[in-house]
Write a sequence for this structure.
């Protein structure tokens, strides 16, 4: 296991932060902090651990490898694999195909996003929901179509979608 | 060194081995337009605007990156090349706002010039997708407009490879790429040190300085206010270059121009440079006598200060506590001058003209104020000053020479050379020598600190035989290299001069566009010439400075000096979520 | 368990495609059966991909006294019959037997069972690289050795590195990843380059959609890749190497990881290989999802922990590659050819293929073809033979329209070019490109504009964004093509003009992108457009000027109408229409209001009388 805290780095290379979780957990690696090529495997291990790359871990990774945060962010946003935001517990996809669009899919979209307080992000702050629009799902006779956790709901209206979300939320609250 | 013989558009030329096609073209005096090329750095070959035809090659070839080989036949202006070049420009314009009339770069923009040269007279691609991103106005120094960015990557490279800051980088991929700080945070919350080197190198209006010119006009229009101005040495050097005259002539006309703008008083930052030398020279001697903290590191470069606060928070005690000349002069205006002239300090506005974008940040630092109020109220860059001349329809060349106002206008040659790398050290050494020996050195004794080498060293032998060693550094990338050694205790310097920008302030982020090594050397040369022609060569002999101490400050490092002319620093985080990440 | 010569062996093909067809369930079925019956009398093994994907899952049976026999497709419905034959001595099920693994011409005693290698799919193939795939257990080093593995490495170590380079040069092997650069020459450059540290990299990024040759080799015969890389390392003087494998191939990564461990233990990797003083450490780097990282210098940047962006060349990786050191990068298939060349000699390799393109090539034959899968053919075979002899011709016997070769970097060849021989130079002459070996067959129902758009959508989204022509140019090409396949009902004259203008500019821009892009991705991204423009100009004209899609694919351009002869007025379609575009009275022929129709095609799906048509 890497003894990351015990290092000789001084000056601008001196570590300000504890090592990344993927390093200190010992379950991954080993990760050679002096090799810049460690960056991608370390990010892959971090995403395996958390399901995405938490901002805090990105900072730790930058610190650990002596790279700027902007650089690590730049690498993370280049590759398809890396997610900087976790998916919400419930993944809601609203079909953006032509038929659904004509039947009011965008209204459902904006109503749900307003309900869940999503302005810039796709995922609600309580981590319960991610709302995305998705390319045509190919079931136009059931337009508008909403896919909730891999279950197709056809002939949706804004009202029905709202109720669906509220029901899920109530169930989640009860479970807590 | 073996020579390579090629022809460029039929002209034969011989170049050294290892040269690129672009080098060969330059030597043959054939101009090839470039966008992403940075002198002195490895080519990236990303903009493809410099593509040329090489006989025998299937595709066009990027001249900035392709090595010249013996016998190569290069053609830079065939119809095939011109068509490709036009297409490149059209593609850039397809993703660019139609903002030219209102853009800060209007009339002085690389992209605009390139489009004009290529004869582009209409948009080829209309109504297509374009990159979309809000403007970032968070920073007091730099305004970011990613929609005008053509992704040449020069800002990224300057920030990383030259300045060692790396606050921005390419993010995303393909068409949806942007140059961003980490997590697209606002620039003000990042490790950006405001040096403005990115602004100086940006070929479009994607990165520009925040303009404070309109605020300055408002001050000048307000009769209730007394608005005074100060200018840095590097500004007059730049004006000399722009208007084709000597540094001394440019200085004199600059004063007249500023009076015409309406400033009540025209002061000289160089005066405060002399003041800084008095305070900092004394400070250095104290530190040497008391055994530390050493090395004493200069503090007149606000880009360097912020850099130290982010990356070397443990070394802040080594920084001189002196404010920069800009701030010192402001403090003197609002206290000393206000008292002497019986003007209420709250009615005074101090404007500074600087070659620097970080000075805008410095002026807004919370600690930069005294009883008399904020030291400096507005900072404009050399570029903004030239724009002001334009707004006034003023012809600089026909102005009569003028003189700085008394009280805070006299300066020595030592003060003038502050704008060049090595200038602060040289000025300080002239006075420190005097303080130690009671005699003036030869003014040119410390010439070793001059020149564009990134790190220069100098030695001063004290009367007791002890040797004091110092270093002079310009460009933050070089600062990082030396500071890492300082932090690990590997150096024995007693003092270090650090200027954030390559070449020193003459290469500042606020200077006219088109900086290169040659121009930087020329501008520094103007300042050394001003110094040479001065009668007054030593800061400690400046009569206005002597008077200020007699009448007001008492002595260097006195209580009053400390209150007005000294400041403090604070460590800053290096990462965005640092508090959380530390848990 | 101790297999004896009386043990019956069942081998289930569990490459990724086999698994997608349900091979794991088949494997578990036999495992259960064996467990219940007599565990010691049977052996159950896994193997890789045989290449005959249309008939997966494939199960091989080795009964003492018989040659090995392949069966497929084996499903949970018919697996019992196979078990019956194996355990109870029942009838050999001839309906899904594929053939025996005998040598061609060998006389066998199984009636009605052909020799596998003489069946139509395999008859014209020449399996050198795929020799072990689908035959040996990829998790067994012993089986690899028994099949002749590591002989090449042993022979190479008896020669000098320069001699090894010469052997590969003589063989004429050319890069199988796409460009076809002579491999021996590449090794020569790296061998000659001065440097204290050199690297070998194996490009296993295989990003072309629809290409899975490298995956099958890695999953089915990982030691062949290891052996090839060790030979390459010895030849150029490298002591460290990486296999850069895309993360989307977890099974390949797992098999390779295990094989490397086995090789290290047995002394074929690590320090002092085969008792000599040659040492070679092989590591795996996982890709992170970027097609552009299949390009050599972008791949290097990725290993260096950077954004996968290409670098200007020269300097080439052989001079200055990974960390600025001399580096040799080869594709998986190229590397898999190397052991054979060293073991049997360059001349043995040159016996196959053509003068300028010796050896074989593995193709991923897919699309509207009867028999699809991985096909290894000698270079120089006419396209027609591959598609119609090996592939069995066009599905449903529809008319052949084009074959797309080389993935997103390649081109479409029409019928009159079917006699083109498949080798590097002939394909380039014809306006296509070998690429990694993807071969997609298209019939009359394929819209060539749609094909170009599909590939351009892909390359545009995978563009790294570094260079202007690819980043901005591909986006504009994409927009132009999208403009062609969209409906334009309420288009103003100005909009029409802009659309036409864009189309005229499209070809010029495509050529400029080819001429100026910084790497292979950008340089070849316009190929699908340019080749379809050349051979299928009429389809483009129909889309642009007549706003019509002749193949009926571009839904936005189709006009839906109801045939009044067939319509019974049942009204089913009316309910389904999302835009209420169908009008009519019950029991009377209905009518589609074209202005309201959004071309979703739902009505057509639901009409029980086939009365709704397109034109």
């Amino acid at each position: 296991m890497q003894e990351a805290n015990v290092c000789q780095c001084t000056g601008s290379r001196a570590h300000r932060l504890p090592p990344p979780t993927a390093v200190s957990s010992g379950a991954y690696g080993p990760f050679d902090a002096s090799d810049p090529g460690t960056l991608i495997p370390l990010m892959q291990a971090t995403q395996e651990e958390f399901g995405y790359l938490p901002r805090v871990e990105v900072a730790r990774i930058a610190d650990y490898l002596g790279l700027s945060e902007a650089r690590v962010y730049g690498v993370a946003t280049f590759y398809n694999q890396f997610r900087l935001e976790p998916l919400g517990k419930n993944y809601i996809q609203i079909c953006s195909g032509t038929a659904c669009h004509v039947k009011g899919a965008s209204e459902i979209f904006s109503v749900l996003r307003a309900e869940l307080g999503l302005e810039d992000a796709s995922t609600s702050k309580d981590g319960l929901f991610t709302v995305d629009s998705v390319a045509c799902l190919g079931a136009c006779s059931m337009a508008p179509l909403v896919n909730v956790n891999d279950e197709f709901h056809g002939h949706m209206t804004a009202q029905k979608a709202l109720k669906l979300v509220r029901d899920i939320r109530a169930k989640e609250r009860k479970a807590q | 060194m073996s020579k390579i013989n090629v022809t460029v558009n039929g002209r034969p030329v011989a170049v050294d081995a290892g040269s690129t096609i672009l080098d060969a073209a330059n030597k043959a005096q054939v101009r090839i337009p470039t966008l992403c090329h940075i002198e002195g750095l490895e080519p990236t070959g990303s903009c493809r605007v410099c593509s040329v035809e090489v006989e025998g090659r299937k595709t066009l070839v990027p001249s900035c990156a392709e090595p010249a080989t013996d016998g190569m036949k290069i053609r830079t202006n065939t119809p095939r090349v011109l068509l490709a070049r036009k297409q490149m420009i059209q593609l850039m314009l397809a993703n660019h706002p139609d903002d030219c009339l209102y853009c800060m770069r209007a009339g002085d923009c690389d992209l605009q010039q390139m489009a004009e040269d290529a004869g582009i007279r209409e948009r080829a691609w209309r109504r297509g997708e374009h990159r979309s991103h809000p403007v970032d106005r968070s920073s007091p120094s730099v305004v970011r407009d990613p929609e005008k960015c053509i992704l040449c990557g020069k800002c990224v490279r300057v920030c990383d490879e030259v300045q060692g800051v790396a606050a921005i980088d390419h993010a995303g991929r393909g068409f949806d790429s942007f140059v961003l700080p980490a997590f697209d945070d606002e620039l003000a919350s990042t490790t950006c040190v405001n040096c403005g080197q990115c602004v100086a190198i940006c070929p479009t209006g994607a990165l520009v300085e925040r303009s404070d010119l309109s605020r300055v006009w408002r001050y000048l229009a307000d009769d209730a206010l007394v608005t005074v101005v100060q200018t840095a040495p590097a500004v007059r050097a730049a004006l000399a270059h722009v208007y084709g005259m000597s540094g001394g002539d440019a200085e004199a006309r600059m004063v007249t121009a500023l009076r015409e703008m309406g400033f009540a008083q025209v002061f000289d930052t160089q005066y405060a440079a002399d003041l800084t030398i008095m305070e900092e020279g004394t400070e250095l001697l104290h530190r040497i006598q008391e055994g530390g903290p050493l090395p004493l590191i200069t503090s007149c470069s606000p880009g360097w200060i912020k850099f130290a606060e982010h990356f070397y928070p443990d070394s802040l005690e080594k920084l001189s506590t002196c404010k920069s000349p800009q701030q010192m002069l402001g403090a003197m205006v609002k206290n000393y001058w206000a008292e002497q002239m019986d003007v209420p300090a709250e009615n005074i506005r101090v404007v500074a003209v600087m070659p620097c974008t970080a000075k805008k940040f410095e002026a807004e630092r919370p600690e930069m104020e005294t009883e008399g109020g904020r030291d400096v109220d507005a900072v404009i860059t050399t570029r903004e000053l030239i724009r002001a001349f334009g707004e006034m329809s003023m012809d600089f060349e026909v102005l009569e020479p003028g003189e700085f106002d008394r009280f805070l206008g006299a300066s020595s040659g030592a003060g003038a050379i502050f704008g060049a790398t090595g200038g602060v050290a040289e000025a300080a050494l002239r006075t420190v020598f005097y303080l130690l020996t009671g005699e003036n050195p030869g003014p040119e004794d410390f010439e070793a600190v001059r020149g564009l080498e990134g790190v220069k060293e100098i030695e001063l032998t004290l009367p007791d035989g002890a040797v004091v060693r110092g270093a002079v550094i310009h460009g933050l990338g070089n600062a990082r290299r030396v500071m890492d050694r300082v932090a690990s205790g590997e150096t024995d310097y007693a003092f270090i001069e650090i200027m954030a920008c390559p070449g020193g302030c003459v290469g500042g982020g606020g200077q006219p566009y088109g900086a290169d090594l040659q121009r930087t050397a020329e501008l520094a040369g103007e300042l050394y010439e001003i110094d040479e022609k001065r009668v007054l060569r030593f800061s400690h002999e400046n009569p206005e400075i002597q008077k200020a101490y007699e009448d007001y400050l008492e002595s260097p490092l006195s209580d009053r000096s400390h209150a007005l002319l000294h400041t403090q620093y604070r460590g800053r985080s290096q990462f965005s979520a640092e508090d959380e990440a530390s848990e | 368990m101790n297999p004896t010569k009386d043990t019956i062996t069942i081998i289930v093909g569990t490459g990724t495609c086999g698994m997608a067809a349900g091979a794991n369930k088949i494997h578990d079925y036999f495992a259960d059966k064996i467990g219940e019956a007599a565990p010691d009398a049977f052996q159950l093994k896994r193997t890789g991909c045989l290449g005959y994907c249309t008939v997966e899952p494939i199960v091989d049976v080795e009964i003492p006294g018989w040659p090995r026999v392949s069966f497929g497709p084996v499903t949970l419905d018919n697996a019992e019959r196979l078990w019956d034959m194996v355990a109870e001595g029942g009838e050999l099920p001839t309906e899904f037997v594929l053939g025996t693994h005998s040598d061609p011409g060998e006389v066998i005693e199984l009636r009605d069972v052909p020799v596998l290698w003489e069946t139509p799919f395999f008859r014209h193939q020449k399996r050198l690289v795929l020799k072990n795939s689908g035959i040996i257990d990829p998790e067994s080093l012993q089986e690899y050795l028994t099949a002749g593995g590591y002989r090449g490495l042993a022979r190479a170590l008896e020669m000098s590195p320069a001699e090894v380079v010469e052997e590969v040069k003589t063989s004429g092997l050319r890069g199988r990843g796409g460009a076809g650069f002579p491999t021996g020459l590449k090794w020569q450059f790296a061998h000659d380059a001065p440097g204290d540290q050199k690297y070998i990299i194996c490009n296993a990024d295989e990003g072309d959609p629809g290409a899975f040759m490298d995956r099958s080799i890695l999953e089915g015969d990982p030691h062949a890749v290891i052996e090839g890389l060790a030979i390459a390392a010895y030849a150029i003087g490298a002591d460290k190497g990486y296999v850069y494998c895309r993360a989307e191939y977890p099974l390949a990564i797992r098999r390779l990881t295990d094989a490397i461990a086995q090789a290290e233990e047995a002394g074929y990797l690590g320090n002092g290989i085969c008792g000599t003083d040659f040492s070679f450490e092989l590591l795996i780097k996982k890709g992170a999802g970027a097609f552009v990282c299949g390009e050599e210098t972008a791949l290097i940047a990725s290993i260096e922990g950077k954004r996968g962006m290409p670098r200007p060349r020269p300097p080439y990786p052989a001079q200055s590659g990974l960390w600025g050191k001399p580096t040799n990068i080869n594709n998986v298939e190229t590397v898999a050819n190397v052991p054979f060349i060293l073991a049997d000699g360059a001349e043995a390799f040159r016996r196959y293929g053509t003068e300028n393109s010796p050896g074989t090539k593995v193709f991923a034959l897919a699309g509207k073809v009867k028999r699809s899968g991985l096909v290894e053919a000698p270079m120089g075979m006419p396209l027609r033979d591959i598609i119609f002899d090996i592939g069995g011709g066009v599905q449903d016997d529809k008319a052949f329209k084009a074959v797309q070769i080389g993935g997103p970097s390649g081109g479409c060849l029409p019928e009159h070019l079917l006699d083109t021989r498949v080798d590097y130079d002939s394909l380039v002459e014809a306006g296509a490109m070998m690429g990694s070996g993807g071969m997609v067959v298209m019939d009359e129902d394929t819209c060539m504009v749609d094909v170009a758009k599909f590939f351009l959508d892909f390359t545009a989204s995978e563009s790294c964004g570094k260079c202007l022509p690819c980043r901005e140019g591909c986006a504009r090409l994409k927009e132009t093509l999208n403009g062609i396949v969209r409906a334009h009902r309420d288009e103003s004259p100005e909009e029409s003009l802009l659309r036409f203008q864009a189309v005229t500019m499209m070809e010029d821009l495509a050529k400029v992108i080819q001429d100026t892009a910084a790497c292979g991705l950008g340089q070849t991204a316009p190929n699908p457009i340019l080749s379809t423009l050349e051979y299928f100009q009429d389809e483009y004209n129909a889309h642009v000027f007549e706003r019509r899609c002749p193949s009926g694919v571009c839904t936005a351009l189709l006009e839906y109408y109801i045939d009044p002869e067939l319509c019974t007025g049942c009204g089913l379609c009316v309910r389904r229409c999302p835009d209420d575009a169908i009008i009519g009275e019950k029991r009377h022929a209905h009518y589609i209001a074209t202005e309201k129709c959004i071309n979703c095609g739902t009505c057509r799906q639901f009409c029980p009388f086939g009365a709704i048509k397109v034109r």
